[in-house]
Amino acid sequence: MHVRETADAINRDAAEWVVRVDRACDDPAIAAELAAWLAGDTRRQGAYLRAQAMWRHLDDVDEDVSETRRVPARRWIMTLGGGLAAAAMAGVFWLGGDGSRAYTTALGERTRTELTDGSVMVLNTASLSHVRMTPSRRLVDMERGEAWFHVAKDRSRPFVVSAGPIRVEAVGTAFAVRRRNGATDVTVTSGTVRAWSEATPTRFISLRAGHRVRLQDATGASNAAIRSDGVGQALAWSRGEIVLDGMTLAEAAAEFNRYNRHQVTVEESLANRRLVGWFQANDPESFARSAATMVGGHTEQDEATTRIVK
């Protein structure tokens, strides 16, 4: 019995075909194989065209990156679905006593790094991670902040991300991890991951592409609610954006404060008002003005702070 391919599998194959065609330099044999693959499913043509468009976009991004810090963006094309817009490349790293390597980002900075196993790690603002490769495991400790990973396939060495007591394990997968106070958000963009808390190690949760979850440190997978909505919003940071989808004004201000030295504060009487909207992460003043209008308030501003008040 023929098993119908999933859309996720078609997208992955399409990305691989774009890479093969780019490297083949008009090899007629590769062109014939591609034509046969495209003919095998009506959905493949659209997936291939989307992959081509993303390939060209990431090629343009690479042109903006200095030669000394360049990482080939095309190696991880299509893994974020919508792609990753121009990320900074100035990650700082050093070697620890256990052979680990630490990567960090400054406030408002994003970096992408290819790890020694071929996996890609993209760090969001004000993040710190320690990476250690062993013969049996690939280990990442997210000390703070947020990262997205495109994991190179190696079934003999699981890829495990630690965020406080939370553990996320994957092989050949793409997913994001955000460390919060007392909890960790996990968002899967490709493949499947397994997540649990060291506090309750016998209970774990499996997440597949297009799903996300928040795991509390104390309870882990127990009573964790898997969501199939909001994945695009959760990864908007990869495009330099913040999407407000029912956040309270206080939560939204805190989100902008993650990215900017210019901070936004909210009068307590307005803190629980809920907002929707799309904003550039590096423009807190525009957010504050728009949010104030939405909640019937106004802004007061000095050099370091914008206040939203009644």
Structural class by secondary-structure content? alpha+beta
Distance between the termini: 65 Å
Radius of gyration: 21 Å
What global shape is seen?
globular
Description of the structure:
The chain has six helices and 19 strands.
Give keywords.
globular; alpha+beta; single chain; 310 residues; eight-stranded mixed beta sheet; 19 strands
Structure in a nutshell:
This protein has helices spanning 7-24, 28-39, 44-63, 231-234, 249-257, 284-294; strands spanning 92-95, 101-104, 111-114, 120-123, 128-133, 138-144, 146-150, 159-163, 166-170, 174-180, 183-190, 192-197, 200-208, 211-216, 241-248, 263-266, 274-280, 298-301, 305-309. It has 310 residues and is an alpha+beta fold.
Describe the secondary structure blueprint for this structure.
Layout: H1 7-24, H2 28-39, H3 44-63, E1 92-95, E2 101-104, E3 111-114, E4 120-123, E5 128-133, E6 138-144, E7 146-150, E8 159-163, E9 166-170, E10 174-180, E11 183-190, E12 192-197, E13 200-208, E14 211-216, H4 231-234, E15 241-248, H5 249-257, E16 263-266, E17 274-280, H6 284-294, E18 298-301, E19 305-309
Parallel strand pairs: 6-8, 16-19
Antiparallel strand pairs: 1-2, 2-5, 3-4, 4-7, 5-6, 7-10, 8-9, 9-12, 10-11, 11-14, 12-13, 15-17, 18-19
Helix pairs in contact: 1-3, 5-6
